[in-house]
């Protein structure tokens, strides 16, 4: 039988098959588009300068209302979000973003002066992919932006759908289904569940989860893993696989094998 003509895109490379001959073309990478939502002008200027000198494309605003209008015109690759803003809490807006289809997968890093553990936990529970406390290291901020972007765009190794009993995960569509029920999770929680679904029965320590999900060398507190795991379990608790992920005391977590 003749081989069908086809075109596939893998990251920055397009693969074209025509009459049995395959050719590959490189696509120039587009700059990362960052939306900064910060009302303190000096800090906003520092973040913008740091991002621009790293080759990112920057838009910035001081209010949630203006940020929302910018998103309606052009969806950014990532949002850097302050908590305390003049017209609306950044946390409230983050919650809205996570419940809207067109914005639920945009990575969000919270940059805020609120550094108490309870604040960090709340920010992550609402849906932040990362949380940084002011003052912060510009180099670390850039590293965390790159990690968050990598996780969303081409950060998953698997391209084929993963099926574990009634649970199915489609990395190409960023879609998780249990039977006919679709789960809404953050980018980080998607990657965590994908990791466990790919290796059922395998125990992962919190540090191993950080390395696999956030990337090697990234400074993430192990408590962050527990927060995201709590959010993920809340989503699974409403399904027939509510006990999919179990805690292995003294070590970490693993997914039960589903027949």
Q: How would you describe this structure to a colleague?
A:
The protein is an alpha/beta fold and about 260 residues long. It is built from eight helices and 15 strands. The protein has helices spanning about 40-55, 65-75, 90-100, 115-125, 140-150, 185-200, 205-215, 220-235, and strands at about 5-10, 15-20, 20-25, 35, 55-60, 80, 110, 130-135, 160-165, 165-170, 175-180, 180-185, 205, 245-250, 250-255. A five-stranded parallel β-sheet has the order 5-4-6-7-8, sandwiched between helices. Helix 6 crosses helix 8.
Topology:
Layout: E1 6-10, E2 13-18, E3 21-26, E4 33-37, H1 41-53, E5 57-61, H2 64-73, E6 78-81, H3 90-98, E7 108-112, H4 117-126, E8 130-133, H5 138-152, E9 162-164, E10 167-170, E11 175-178, E12 181-183, H6 187-198, E13 204-205, H7 206-213, H8 222-236, E14 245-248, E15 252-255
Parallel strand pairs: 4-5, 4-6, 6-7, 7-8
Antiparallel strand pairs: 1-2, 2-3, 9-10, 10-11, 11-12, 13-15, 14-15
Radius of gyration computed on alpha carbons: 20 Å
Mean pLDDT across every amino acid position: 83
What proportion of the residues is helical, as a percent range? 25-40%
Give the strand tally: 15
**In DSSP terms, counting alpha (H) and pi (I) runs of 4 or more, how many helices?**
8
- Rough outline: globular
Question: What structural class do the secondary elements suggest?
Answer: alpha/beta
Please trace the helix and strand order, writing H or E for each element: EEEEHEHEHEHEHEEEEHEHHEE
- The neighbouring-strand order within the major sheet is 5-4-6-7-8
Low-confidence stretches: 9-13
- Most strands sheet: 5 strands, parallel
Strand content bin = 15-25%
Please report the distance between the alpha carbons of the first and last residues: 37 Å
């Amino acid at each position: 039988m003749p081989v069908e003509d086809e075109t596939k895109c893998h990251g920055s490379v397009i693969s074209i098959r025509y009459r049995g001959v395959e050719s590959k073309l490189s696509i120039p990478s587009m700059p990362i588009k960052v939306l900064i939502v910060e009302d303190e002008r000096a800090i906003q200027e520092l973040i913008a300068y740091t991002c621009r000198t790293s080759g990112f494309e920057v838009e910035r605003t001081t209010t949630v209302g203006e940020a929302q209008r910018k998103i309606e015109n052009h969806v950014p690759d990532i949002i850097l979000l302050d908590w305390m803003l003049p017209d609306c809490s950044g946390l409230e807006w983050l919650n809205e973003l996570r419940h809207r289809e067109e914005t639920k997968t945009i990575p969000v890093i919270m940059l805020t002066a609120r550094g108490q553990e309870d604040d960090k936990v709340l920010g992550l529970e609402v849906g932040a992919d990362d949380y940084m406390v002011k003052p912060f290291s510009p180099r670390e901020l850039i590293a965390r932006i790159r990690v968050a972007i990598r996780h969303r765009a081409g950060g998953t190794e698997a391209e084929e759908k993963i099926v574990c009993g009634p649970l199915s995960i489609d990395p190409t569509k960023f879609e998780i289904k249990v039977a006919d029920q679709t789960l809404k999770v953050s980018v980080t929680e998607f990657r965590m569940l994908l990791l466990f679904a790919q290796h059922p029965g395998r125990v992962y320590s919190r540090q191993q989860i950080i390395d696999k999900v956030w990337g090697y060398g990234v400074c993430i507190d192990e408590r962050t893993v527990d927060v995201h795991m709590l959010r993920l379990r809340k989503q699974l608790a409403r399904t027939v696989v509510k006990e999919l992920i179990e805690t292995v005391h003294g070590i970490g977590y693993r997914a039960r094998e589903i027949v």
